[in-house]
Design goal:
Largest sheet: none
Order of helices and strands: HHHH
Shape: elongated
Distance between the termini: 41 Å
Radius of gyration: 17 Å
Helix content: 55-70%
Number of helices: 4
Length: 114
């Protein structure tokens, strides 16, 4: 493998790690949200989102190029899209409900929503 091939592998590894971290972040965030918030906002139920994001994270892990990762192609793309949909559509709607630790509305959180 030449220098270009090594550079391509490093870029692919970094992108794969970013995608997997995003999928894990979405899954952990969904776990922390109260179940009633999902249905109150007209979204799929919490167990359904946990299943979707859990499968997405598992596929993201399987596609990591560490020790023979699997190229999942279109299925991997669907897994990434599922996590992004949660993060840009569902998560913002759930934030006013807090993180499920008894905080009620999200008034006591950090500024900026992160």
């Amino acid at each position: 493998m030449g220098i270009i091939g090594s550079l391509q592998w490093i870029v692919y590894l970094l992108l794969s790690l970013v995608v997997f971290a995003t999928q894990l972040f979405a899954l952990v965030d969904a776990i922390r949200r109260p179940a009633g918030a999902f249905t109150a906002e007209g979204k799929l139920t919490k167990p359904i989102w946990l299943a979707i994001l859990g499968v997405a994270a598992a596929l993201g892990f399987l596609s990591l190029p560490l020790g023979g990762g699997v190229n999942l192609g279109f299925i991997g793309l669907i897994a990434v899209v599922a996590s992004i949909v949660y993060l840009v559509d569902v998560r913002p709607r759930l934030q006013p409900y807090g993180n499920g630790r008894g905080r009620g509305s999200g008034g006591g959180g950090r500024p900026g929503g992160w």
